[in-house]
Amino acid sequence: MSTRRKFLKVGVIAASLALAGMSSAVFAADTIKVGILHSLSGTMAISETSLKDMALFTIDEINAKGGVLGKKLEPVVVDPASNWPLFAEKARQLLTQDKVAVTFGCWTSVSRKSVLPVFEELNGLLFYPVQYEGEELSPNVFYTGAAPNQQAIPAVEYLMSKDGGSAKRFVLLGTDYVYPRTTNKILRAFLKSKGVADADIMEDYTPFGHSDYQTIIAKIKKFSSEGKKTAVISTINGDSNVPFYKELGNAGLKATDVPVVAFSVGEEELKGIDTKPLLGHLAAWNYFQSVKNPVNTDWVKKWKAYAVAKKLPGADKFVTNDPMEATYVGIHMWAQAVAKAKTTDPTKVAAAMAGQTFKAPSGFTLKMDEKNHHLHKPVMIGEVQPNGQFSVVWQTKAPVRANPWSPFIAGNEKKGDTPTKMTGK
Fold it and tell me: Alpha helices, DSSP H only, in 177-277?
């Protein structure tokens, strides 16, 4: 082969490689990467896997309508495996290696607090879809779940009311980490403000993955037998809810005797439980699958059809729940903010999020607060039904503005309602 032909061949190969590289770069530039940061294994997988699936469903829905800014959304799914330090590593990977424009994820507050310094350092955006203890206001986080005044406080007020059974004694039972302990600190102060004595409050915690609730249920039965109407407020998280409710049924602790109101148990967690012994027990959320309105009917129908079409495990039993609705609303609001800002730049998108609204499956038009990065949300109390659904027994007439700084924690009255500015331009 002549030298000239060798050079021509090398040139053609180089040009082909360059073209291939250019095509790859063009393809990458034609998508907007979206991070999904949920535990798909470990103790929290029972709750978080459905949020990953809902995020993918929502992304498909947006892409079917043309995407955002003329580009399709490209999901990047990672599994932090219910391992809190691993959440931070995966968050850094999403922001520095995968170059995602936004991340939707976390369930527990310990996982959120693990990733928070990463998002603030790298100026990333996190949408957090689960109820939490408040006491936080980051410019890099949008909180689409409930603050305590949108769930915990109204639930306890309901239990103390005549309709809720006029409870006088309270068991604060939770998983041993920041969300239950801080929420119960708030609730203890709230109960004290209502005249409930310390002797009428029992507080107990179990580790993640705890499965033996015989001793604790026995303590609750003894505590409730001491003369005053008793209610249990449960902040148990993850797969521990299954043995807790099974033991509750085994012990014959009925809702008419000692009602339990849960803040982390929804339709997804009840799928694996015989709910007949649990009739009348309660959950406090901002959405239930059973609410009747056209938006919810359409959403549930499309979600179940998606699960079947994608052949997701257990698709025939798929349900919706509150954190799934918060995920769905959060992704759509972010997409609206990107369209408004005409960019995926996190700082500009964060500014465009202020005041965004979305007609939610709850039946309410939800609004992202103009200042505090929290959604205005309705509050609902649901009662367990034989089919694993909840019948709404009480709800607010309108969405409630979140108060991230509880007035029941000393010093909060001095804190502002607006997060500091993001680090980006």
Answer: 178-193, 214-224, 241-250, 267-270
Residue 422: count of CB within 10 angstroms of its CB: 21
Report in angstroms the alpha-carbon separations of 3 from 7, 8, 11, 12, 15. Answer: 6, 9, 12, 14, 18
3-state secondary structure of 151: coil
Q: Which two tokens stand for residue 284?
A: 């406090």
At 69, the amino acid letter reads L
How many residues are there in the chain?
425
In angstroms, the Cα distances linking 112 to 30, 141, 321, 341, 349 are 30, 10, 20, 26, 20
Distance from C-alpha of 404 to C-alpha of 393, rounded to nearest angstrom:
26
The DSSP output letter for 185 is H
Confidence of residue 17 (pLDDT cuts 50, 70, 90): very low
Q: Angle at CA 363, nearest 5°, toward 357 and 365? A: 15
* Two tokens, residue 2: 């002549």
Q: How far is CA 84 from CA 191, 207, 224, 298, in A?
A: 32, 14, 36, 36
Express each pLDDT in 87-130 by its tens digit: 999 999 999 999 999 999 999 999 999 999 999 999 999 999 99
**pLDDT, tens digit, for every residue of 228-239?**
999 999 999 999
> DSSP letters along 24-91, please?
HHHHHHTEEEEEEE--SSSTTHHHHHHHHHHHHHHHHHHHHTT-BTTBEEEEEEE--TT-HHHHHHHH
Note whether 129 and 145 are within 8 A (CB): yes
Count CA atoms within 13 Å of residue 407 on its CB side: 7
